[in-house]
Design goal:
Elements lengths: L2 H17 L9 E8 L3 E2 L2 E2 L6 E9 L4 E9 L2 H6 L6 E14 L2 E11 L14 E10 L2 E8 L13 E7 L1 E4 L2 E11 L10 E13 L2 E10 L3 H4 L11 E9 L1
Antiparallel strand pairs: 1-4, 1-15, 2-3, 4-5, 5-6, 6-7, 7-8, 8-9, 9-10, 10-12, 11-12, 12-13, 13-14, 14-15
Length: about 250
């Protein structure tokens, strides 16, 4: 396992174990569970267009420090890489949020995407990936930059992969939120830059109260068939729609 990823998991695990018994009401521990018809990461399907069951836990301190873990089933390691093992993704993250000046927020952190027991290293390189990120938010807009400090999701010699994410959240009233998004992924040292792409998404979320939300998202990318499609399967970045329901408590 990447040393940085191992450190992140150790630190976040110790923190979450501690706060699980903490009594400080101002430092909440929250949980969420949900299902989606197609799990997309940066608008690329992680489940070969099949449903996913997901769950997470988050800790947010009043100082701005936060940490969490999240998990989902995935299919791409077996379907697209040809790995014999690797059907679960576990993300562990930690960071710090604050304000530079009133109304202008920042978010600094790191995240590791782990695929327990995956065997992609027998074909390409291990799929486990760690990124650092920095974000700025103003009013309804958020700009975030992420960069891998390891190989990026089973791509050889791909350390330094970058992703730019620009999004906004518009409150439509009646519990409805509209979130447009545009992103740009680059993966270095890949033949003809075939892994690079731009993605677009538009999400409509409905808050039903009592922790229940539903979301409808439309996705579109310009992913290259030579990189994101294999025989017997479609391009993972093809345009599509996903629906999901989540319960937070």
């Amino acid at each position: 396992m990447n040393p940085i990823a191992k450190s992140l998991i150790t630190v976040a695990g110790a923190l979450l174990a501690t706060v699980a018994v903490a009594q400080e009401a101002a430092s909440p521990l929250s949980f969420n569970v949900g299902v989606v018809s197609d799990y997309r990461f940066r608008s690329v399907s992680q489940t070969s267009f099949k449903p996913a069951v997901q769950a997470g836990v988050d800790y947010a301190h009043t100082s701005g420090f936060y940490a969490g873990a999240w998990a989902s089933n995935v299919n791409w390691l077996k379907d697209y890489i040809g790995a014999t093992d690797g059907s679960v993704e576990v993300d562990v993250y930690l960071g710090y949020k604050g304000e530079i000046v009133k109304g202008l927020g920042y978010d600094l952190g790191a995240i590791t995407y782990q695929y327990p027991g995956n065997t992609t290293d027998k074909i390409l390189v291990n799929a486990n990936t760690t990124e650092v990120y920095a974000g700025l938010s103003y009013n309804v807009f958020t700009l975030k930059y992420s960069q891998s400090v390891s190989d990026f999701i089973a791509n050889p010699d791909s350390k330094g992969s970058r992703y730019w994410d620009l999004s906004a959240n518009f409150d439509l009233g009646s519990g409805l939120t509209l979130t447009p998004h545009v992103g740009r992924q680059t993966i270095p040292n890949q033949l003809n830059d075939a892994g690079d792409y731009t993605d677009f998404a538009l999400t409509l979320t409905k808050d039903f109260g009592k922790g229940i939300t539903a979301a409808l998202t439309a996705f579109s990318t310009n992913t290259n068939d030579s990189f994101y499609k294999v025989q017997g399967y479609d391009n993972l970045g093809k345009s599509g729609v996903s629906v999901g329901v989540k319960y937070a408590f």
